[in-house]
Amino acid sequence: MKFRVEREVLADAVTWVARGLPARPPVPVLAGVLLEANEEGTLTLSAFDYEVSAKITVAAEVAEGGTVLVLGRLLADISRNLPSKPVDVATEGNKVSVVCGSSRFSLMQMPADDYPTLPTSPTASGTIAGDVFTQAVAQVSIAADRGDTLPILTGVRVEIEGDKMTLLATDRYRLAMRELTWNPEATDASHLALVPARTLSETAKALGASGSIEVALGSSAGGDGLVGFEAGQRRTTTRLLDGEYPKVTSIFPTSVDTEAVIKTSELIEAVKRVALVAERNTPVRLKFSDGQVAIEAGTGDDAQASEAVESTLTGPEIEIAFNPQFLLDGLGAVGTDYSRFSFTQPSRPAVLSGQDEVDGEADTTYRYVLMPVRFAS
Description:
DNA Polymerase III, Chain A, domain 2
């Protein structure tokens, strides 16, 4: 095998496929990236760890076709640090030489025959705008559980009915839900999938710059246990999580007693400052009254802080406490100039949504439910 490729093209391609490689693979070959050079002028790079597969095809000057398997993370590190010149890659016995300018590396070939077969390329169930999908995944994945006590909560629940897609995630302390439209191949499309949040988040970030992302679900993905994504020449599949997701939408309050609208950026800055004195696992307290919200943290002999931010209030005054990081996560995700809080009572979940104007309508396509923290009054 012998080919030449631009350094930026190679670095981008290897980084894309190697991003999910396991740090401690159960089988050594799973740490590899498969390079397939085609004499028609293409180079395909692939990686697969039995859970997530990634594949990308780029243009290359191929003098001699062939297939090799090399350590993926090492090749990614090398390609990112090479000078900005064409890269020549060739097999030399059981080694692979990588030459760029005066830089020369020699890598060991791994046994390509032992590498698992990647899932078949999925067939699109529909498409969605890349920027919309990336934002939606980011808004929801913040609420997914990061522990392994309940593996099912580490996923994002994706439900599709016709042209409506609903993403939902929860870690039992907060819940995020985003509703959006997509373009299904079939108008009666109906799918339910539980996608690992970390993989979904990384995939959305990597593909989001593309104008459109193809999504494959069910049999179109190559099996009911898979979901596939494709944008441009990048293709990826991931194995879905098994199990019944809890029926958490009942957490959404059916009535609202108090609503407050606040400039998002001002509240974020105030909460960040006040939270500096909040000890680990202690909340920040928010007192909503006419015209302002007072943010406080710290009690007794501990360090204390307080700050007030202008707000508009509808309904009775309310005092409520939240985990400061969970509150900041939600405020950072709404993506609008103003945030609207909807309350029933201090011991019940609060709903955060966004709106563009202080006296405008709330955009309920994204809702972030936050469980309050009990505090000593």
